Structures are given as structure tokens and as C-alpha cells.
Amino acid sequence: MSDLTNLRFLTVAEVAEMMRVSSMTVYRMVHSGDLPAVRFGRSFRIPESAVVAAVQVPRADAG
To answer: Within 10 Å of residue 29's Cβ, how many Cβ atoms?
Structure first.
């Protein structure tokens, strides 16, 4: 089992604030699979490392 002591989970609201987008945008990213998340009851938690990776990936989605 991997070491979970350094793993930090963020709420949808925290991710939205960090990325400067709406909560709905974060939910869309989670549901589309662009942002991995774990469901705890009725809420989602996103690993902080996934948010950092998503922000650092250069994308050319301009169309």
C-alpha cells in the first residue's frame, strides 16, 4: 500500500477557487474524466496532485 500521509484531498469549491473557475466547471471536469475524483457520500474530493497536474498540462484546445 502506498504512503497516504502526504495525500491531500480538496473539495470542489477549493479546486474552483484555485483554478479561478466556477464549481460547475469543476463538476464537468470530474464527470468527463478530465479531473480524477473520489466520491465520499454525496460529495467529491479531488486529489491536490491531480489539480496541479491538470493546471501544468499545456493544452491547445483553442478552436
So the answer is: 22
pLDDT for 30 equals 96
- Sign of the dihedral through C-alpha 15, 18, 23, 27: negative
Give the predicted TM-score (pTM) of the model.
0.79
Banded pLDDT at 16 (limits 50, 70, 90): very high
Question: How confident is the model over 44-55, as pLDDT tens digits?
Answer: 999 999 999 988
- Cα separation, 24 vs 41, whole angstroms: 18
3-state secondary structure 9-62: EEEHHHHHHHHCCCHHHHHHHHHHCCCCCEEECCEEEEEHHHHHHHHHCCCCCC
Q: Residue 30: which of 63, 52, 7, 54 has the closest Cα?
A: 54
